[in-house]
Specification:
Helix content: 25-40%
Number of strands: 0
Strand content: under 5%
Structural class: mainly alpha
CATH topology of the largest domain: Cytochrome Bc1 Complex, Chain D, domain 2
Largest sheet: none
CATH superfamily of the largest domain: Cytochrome c-like domain
CATH architecture of the largest domain: Orthogonal Bundle
Number of helices: 11
Distance between the termini: 65 Å
Shape: globular
Radius of gyration: 21 Å
Order of helices and strands: HHHHHHHHHHH
CATH class of the largest domain: Mainly Alpha
Number of domains: 3
């Protein structure tokens, strides 16, 4: 039995849901189905718990996966962030809510959450629920649908990511991923597209005189690495600020103290254990890794640090 809103006596289910909604939704989705923007970048894809039977995945295995991660996947270890009790709580929530009872999980469009008249956004619903693809040609839409799409793009996309698209594009194409968290408020949802404090970090630095290698590195970085480290290298986009430990600020003299091109190549190639910095040696070719390192050292790493490698 779930406790009414505002009650202090929170059940283990409620506590598990809180952990899931903070730590796990980004890849697995609030609905537990793994249909997220992050999933389009990942291979293998995050598990769809709603399509996983209890008999197929034991509680013990899930606890091990959350605690220690799963090699060869984006499932990282949470042992430094969650206690054993919290791991058990979130696993039990997933097993009950998604694998057993197929619950809806969390409703957000309520008056208490700042949506006193959610029906006024009805014309945007077809794009939010995937009924209409977001990239349909405008000429294929009715006047009301075009208005709905515009409303979706200005007010709904912050939480609904990019909704459904007909053309997924290349797996490693850059995509809009900087969505507000924490200080963000949707009390005035019509203005949220300009309210995010993270968007400034999605702007690609304009640097003249890049070598051909650095230009290649820019393309690869902005198509892959900016997802966590931000287009401006600060790691202060929404995703970089969300993951723990936070994505490294490549422009911070302290964080990059002693960094050399050779060391950076090694980090990109083999990753950093205990962080979300995974190994790229099976994704990028050696010369591509070297190009990314050259770009980062030229554009982001403070000159005082970079000079030590010259």
């Amino acid at each position: 039995m779930e406790v009414a809103a505002g009650s202090q006596a929170r059940t283990p289910f409620d506590k598990g849901r809180d952990i899931y909604n903070y730590r796990c939704y980004f890849c697995h989705g609030y609905a537990g189905d793994g249909q997220t923007l992050a999933a389009t970048y990942l291979e293998p894809k995050p598990r769809n718990f709603t399509a996983t039977a209890l008999s197929e995945l034991s509680r013990e295995r899930m606890i091990l996966s959350v605690t220690h991660g799963r090699a060869g996947t984006a499932m990282k270890s949470f042992k430094e962030m969650l206690s054993a009790e919290e791991v058990a709580l979130v696993v039990d929530f997933v097993r009950q809510a998604f694998m057993s009872e197929n619950r809806l999980n969390t409703r957000y469009h309520t008056a208490g959450n700042g949506w006193p008249d959610h029906e006024r956004f009805r014309i945007a619903y077809p794009f939010a629920n995937g009924e209409l693809a977001l990239d349909l040609p405008l000429e294929a839409l009715t006047a009301e649908q075009r208005q709905g799409r515009e409303l979706f793009m200005s007010s709904c996309i912050t939480c609904h990511d990019r909704a459904r698209v007909a053309d997924e594009g290349d797996a490693w194409d850059a995509r809009a991923t900087s969505y507000p968290r924490g200080s963000y408020s949707h009390r005035n949802p019509d203005a949220i597209s300009s309210a995010t404090p993270y968007s400034v970090h999605d702007k690609v630095p304009e640097v003249e005189g890049l070598t051909l290698q650095q230009q290649q590195g820019e393309v690869i970085y902005q198509g892959n690495c900016e997802f966590c480290h931000a287009a401006d290298g600060t790691g202060k986009n929404w995703i970089g600020s969300f993951i723990e430990p936070n994505a490294r600020d490549l422009t911070d003299p302290d964080a990059m103290a002693g960094m050399t091109t050779a060391r950076l190549v090694e980090v990109i190639r083999n990753g950093l254990p205990g962080t979300t910095m995974s190994a790229w040696k099976n994704v990028l070719k050696p010369h591509e890794i070297e190009a990314v390192a050259a770009y980062v050292m030229r554009v982001f790493v403070p000159r005082a640090t970079a000079d030590s490698d010259e």
